[in-house]
Amino acid sequence: MSSMRFRVTVNGFYVRAQTWDDALNWDGFGDEVYLVGAVKSINSDKTEHYTSDVTSFVLGDTSAEAPLVRAGTAKSTGGLQTSDTFPTGEPWKKGRTDNLRQNYPPFLVWEGELPPKGRTAFISIAIYEWDPGNSPLQSLLRWLDKATTEFKSRIQDFLDPTGKMIYEAVELGLDILGTLDDSGMLGKSGSRPIGMKRVAPDKSAFEPKILILNYDNAMQIINDRPAGKDYGVLEFNYPDDAYYRGDYTIYVQVEQVIEDGALVKSSNSPRVYSIVGGGKLWIESVAELNKRYGGDSNIMEVAYGTLENIPDYPKDDTLIKEWDRPEVYVMLSGARVWIPNPEELSRYYGGWQRVMSVPNGTTSRIGDRPRPGSVFKERTTGKMAIFNENGQKIPWFPMPFNFPKIYIVPDGTLDRIP
User: Fold this and answer.
1) Mind listing the pLDDT tens digit for each residue in 149-162?
2) Which residue has the higher pLDDT, 340 or 305?
3) For 346-361, how does the pLDDT look when each residue is reduced to its tens digit (9 = 90+)?
4) pLDDT confidence of residue 138
5) Range list of β-strands (E), 24-175
6) Which pLDDT band, with edges at 50, 70 and 90, does 184 fall under?
7) Taking the domains of the chain in order of start, what are their residue ranges?
């Protein structure tokens, strides 16, 4: 069995309960938070393979001091409060065209290979309430580094299926991240991890959670809905002690990475797909499979949960044409947009060298209507339209405080969409 490549992302979070903020709201109204991830992967021979960490931007009230991303509903400029979610109302879902290299959810925590019984990745993810001033606790990565000796000594235990995937530190024989003195009724400025637990009358401690990811665990997670959400989605839940009041759930997703150009099918369906621009495109004809793609011998079987998480269309800005048709399209907001002539293709889209061939019938299955809330603006005519929840095209004009993403499209595009 060959090694497979996997990806772990933080897709979003849910505020089950807002924290006890400093009484004067020096950090902004409601909660301001940031997410931290740390990764350590170790080979079966106890050598360290990879170490990394990632810290998000601060999310919350944009009128506060930090360089924040707006999040929450406490006021018009944001601020997280009980029942808020980020980045959408379904924070466990990762958008199909999201940039995973950004510094806020959804974002990439780790991507790499896990040879069967050959390597394990230890991934810790936490969420901090931000206040002006540094956190007195050690960093998550430094804590994970200190745990490496324990991981190495028990690496054989972690190469096989573990049954449970997310562990408390104490379950693995690890130290806590650190302790904090209670700050008094007015609160005290300074960042702290959410999920503090009382360990003495005037002290609380933070114990990080760790995802243990080996090949078997990863495949099990991908083929399951362990949080009752989408395939591969896990919950990191961090409830505070009652004194601090906070309770946040972080949604983390494990996926199998399939490269462009791959031919794939799942174990529970005969359908074969070509991966183009990160989307899975059905090869409907056996004759086309043999003629264009080399037949059954090139097909890779993947976890069925993997295909569930791959969209049925390529990502934005992918140029496509069907094998046996001349029309070239650019993908924008999940829709195919016709590029009407070679001059436009060359001037605005990089020319023929960027065009990818796709199975016959693909463009009709994708359709020409973008995701709801998308705005199309023609390149020189100035015509603009927004698409509603029913896919209807509605004339649109820029309005104050209303800034949806605007997609520039070739002239005539809006007339071609009924």
Assistant:
1) 999 999 999 999 98
2) 340
3) 999 999 999 999 999 9
4) 64
5) 33-43, 48-55, 58-60, 68-70, 85-86, 107-114, 119-129, 166-168
6) very low
7) 4-256
Determine whether 175 is exposed, middle or buried from the number of CB atoms within 10 Å of its CB (0-12, 13-18, 19+): middle
Residue 368 is encoded by which pair of tokens? 């020409």
Q: How would you write 105-121 as a 3-class SS string?
A: CCEEEEEEEECCCCEEE
Checking phi first, is residue 184 left (phi over 0); if not, alpha (psi -120 to 50) or beta? left
Nearest alpha-carbon partner for 277 in 315, 333, 332: 315
Taking 50 as the threshold, does the pLDDT of residue 187 lie above it?
no
d(CA 238, CA 10): 15
Cβ-proximal residues to 67 (8 Å cutoff; 6+ apart), any chain: 57, 58
Name the pLDDT band for 24 (thresholds 50, 70, 90). Answer: very low
- How far apart CA 61 and CA 76 sit, in angstroms, is 8
Separation of first and last alpha carbons in the chain: 50
Which of 54, 11, 82 has the alpha carbon at shortest distance from 234? 11
Radius of gyration of the chain (CA): 24
Identity of residue 287: A
**CA–CA separation, 324 and 340 (whole Å):** 17
Using CB atoms within 10 A of its CB, is residue 415 exposed (0-12), middle (13-18) or buried (19+)? exposed
